[in-house]
Design brief:
Blueprint lengths: L30 H10 L2 E6 L2 E8 L8 E2 L6 E2 L5 E6 L6 H6 L2 E3 L1 H5 L6
Antiparallel strand pairs: 1-2, 2-5, 3-4, 5-6
Protein name: ATP/GTP-binding protein
Organism: Paeniglutamicibacter sulfureus
Length: 116
């Protein structure tokens, strides 16, 4: 019988390393935060000539309603990837700025005019 030069495998499972890569998530008990980020996207702060904006990308799976883009005036249909933007430096507070958020096409947001 021919012999193999490979070591035999043990049947016991190997302990997981503490490394985290893009395919695994940390087990620190933050399942609610992780689910929210997965469902609604990651919010980022963006500086522009007209102030600071919170911008969140909405995936095509998360887009369930029809919205009107303020950039082009066209409708954003359900299932279309788009952006949600609201002011970070609103004069009447965070609640008012969150209520005034708008849904934009990504190209319309990038090419918007800062002139009023």
């Amino acid at each position: 019988m021919a012999r193999s030069n490979r070591p035999s495998r043990s049947s016991a499972p190997k302990p997981r390393s503490g490394r985290v890569n893009k395919w695994t998530r940390p087990d620190d008990g933050s399942d609610e935060q992780w689910l929210e980020k997965a469902r609604y996207g990651v919010q980022r702060l963006q500086d522009a000539p007209d102030g600071q904006w919170h911008v969140r990308r909405i995936s095509s799976v998360g887009a369930a309603k029809t919205y009107k883009c303020p950039g082009c005036g066209q409708f954003i249909k359900p299932g279309t990837e788009h952006l949600v933007a609201w002011r970070a430096d609103h004069w009447s507070g965070d609640d008012a700025s969150a209520a005034a958020r708008r849904h934009w096409h990504p190209k319309c947001w990038e090419s918007r005019s800062y002139r009023y």
